[in-house]
Specification:
The structure is a single chain. By secondary structure, the chain is an alpha+beta fold. It is 34% helix and 31% strand. The chain contains 4 helices and 4 strands. Strands 2-3-1-4 form a 4-stranded antiparallel sheet. The radius of gyration is 15 Å and the shape is flat. The two termini are 30 Å apart.
Length: 110
């Protein structure tokens, strides 16, 4: 059974033209590959933690890891992904499994 995956994207825009070339097409392609943008955000302040702040947050919900991989590896999008790479810096792209609650993580922990 496929499980929903969240992709956390944190980054700075380093080249607006490059990133605009990516973002103009990416929303449609994300949707076509089973993704949905859940949240967009602009950095406000660091409340806690040791990660260097990034200007932009995008949280994408994917139908499955396979859906995410299909977006990343679709040969029809080979010309799209370089715009993301060339238009950003400090990119963090982490995948998280969807949980209904924290029991699977806390199970067996004391």
């Amino acid at each position: 059974m496929s499980q929903t995956v969240y992709a956390l994207n944190l980054f700075n825009v380093s080249n607006k033209d490059e990133y605009l070339a990516y973002s103009r097409r990416s929303a449609k392609e994300v949707k076509a590959h089973g993704g949905r943008v859940v949240a967009l955000g602009k950095f406000r302040q660091a409340a806690a933690g040791d990660i260097a702040p990034r200007d932009v947050l995008i949280l994408v919900e994917w139908d499955s890891r396979e859906a995410f991989d299909s977006y990343c590896n679709d040969p029809e999008l080979a010309d799209l992904h370089p715009h993301r790479v060339n238009g950003t810096d400090g990119y963090i792209w982490h995948l998280f499994d969807k949980l209904e609650d924290l029991r699977p993580i806390l199970k067996g922990k004391s």
